[in-house]
Design goal:
three-stranded antiparallel sheet
């Protein structure tokens, strides 16, 4: 009705309708410190499901981070901001794009193998899971270059505060070699839900 009143005699205006989400960004929640492991596992399981659904459509998010995750009412987790989405159909890109704190080694080096672009999201989810449980990022430095170097070269720190199985999963997701990571987030989601149970 509003659009008809605004332009009664003109052609229809194109509009984009999106869901209005109440809640807060995950980044805001993290200001108060790490999450209890069961809560962190629940958040990551929902994100793994969302990313798996995208990957099945050939879509890679490439910017998984707390600012792009919304905690909506009803314990619903929503993955947002698709500004850096890449289609697997386009093939890997050698151009480094993303947020340095969450970028995989192969993203930083521009060495993403064909058919393995989706594994950058597995790595980023591992970084996010680490922060949720431990309370800080696995790799921190004074500059973006320092952080990038640590992602490429430094061993994964201990996932303090996590159960052995959760720590092992997060460490596996943060493997430097993409082929050493879980290859599908469906499996990650299954393992996370098993941990909750």
């Amino acid at each position: 009705d509003y659009l008809e009143q605004a332009q009664p005699d003109g052609p229809p205006l194109p509009v984009l309708v999106t869901e209005l989400l109440a809640g807060i960004p995950l980044s805001e929640r993290l200001r108060s410190g790490p999450m209890p492991p069961p809560e962190a596992v629940a958040v990551c399981a929902q994100l793994a499901d969302a990313l798996q659904a995208a990957h099945e459509l050939g879509i890679v998010h490439r910017d998984v981070k707390p600012a792009n995750v919304l905690l909506a009412p009803g314990q619903r987790v929503v993955l947002a901001d698709l500004g850096l989405v890449l289609s697997e159909l386009d093939g890997p890109t050698k151009r480094a794009q993303g947020t340095p704190n969450y970028m995989s080694p192969e993203s930083i080096l521009g060495t993403i193998a064909p058919g393995a672009t989706h594994l950058v999201d597995v790595y980023a989810l591992g970084v996010l899971a680490f922060w949720l449980v431990v309370g800080h990022l696995p790799f921190e430095g004074k500059t973006s270059i320092d952080v990038a170097r640590l992602h490429v070269e430094a061993p994964v720190p201990e996932v303090a505060g996590a159960s052995p199985k959760l720590a092992a999963l997060v460490t596996e997701m943060l493997a430097k070699d993409p082929l050493a990571r879980p290859q599908q987030l469906e499996g990650v989601s299954f393992r996370l839900r098993a941990l909750r149970a």
